Amino acid sequence: MTNRRIFATAGIRYADAGKMADIVAAVKKMLEGHDEIDTSQTLIVNFNRFASSSLDFFIYALTKTTNWIKFHEVKLDILLKIINIIEEHGTECAFPTSTIHVPDGISMTEK
């Protein structure tokens, strides 16, 4: 074994859709410049799916280390940096939500 794989999914709110391309590009740039990522291997950051409560993108990269503890330290650093990138773009990570549509003509009155 020469590397360990980071494969993660992050989701942003539908309201932030217009910033997806910039976020994906910033995450990819961060990974390409990260000292612990093996950039000679496959590195992918792509918008992946329209989920029920989020727009998801995935991160695929290989670390230079095979050490289990060091790998998790690298992964932690990368995931925290991804959260920062999302927030720096004025967007938020998505969480499960539900929207209730109330048609016109229905009113709620207190009895």
Question: How does this model look, in words?
Answer:
The radius of gyration is 18 Å and the shape is elongated. The mean pLDDT is 94. It has 2 helices and 3 strands, in the order βαββα. It has helices spanning 20-33, 68-88, and strands at 5-12, 44-50, 55-62. It has a 3-stranded antiparallel β-sheet with strand order 1-3-2, covered by helices on one side. It has a single domain (5-88), classed as Alpha-Beta Plaits (2-Layer Sandwich). It has 111 residues and is of the alpha+beta class. Helix 1 packs antiparallel against helix 2.
Key words describing this protein structure:
single chain; 111 residues; alpha+beta; Alpha-Beta Plaits; 3-stranded antiparallel sheet; 2 helices
Q: Nutshell version of this structure?
A:
The protein has 111 residues and is of the alpha+beta class.
Per the CATH scheme, the topology name is: Alpha-Beta Plaits
Strand residues, percent:
15-25%
Principal-axes shape call:
elongated
Q: Which CATH top level class fits?
A: Alpha Beta
Spatial separation of the terminal alpha carbons: 69 Å
Number of strands: 3
Compute the number of structural domains: 1
Low-pLDDT windows of residues = none
Helix content: 25-40%
Mean pLDDT: 94
Q: Main sheet: which strands, in order across?
A: 1-3-2
Main sheet overview: 3 strands, antiparallel
Number of helices: 2
Taking Cα atoms only, what radius of gyration do you get, to the nearest Å? Answer: 18 Å
What's the CATH architecture? 2-Layer Sandwich
The SS-based structural class is alpha+beta
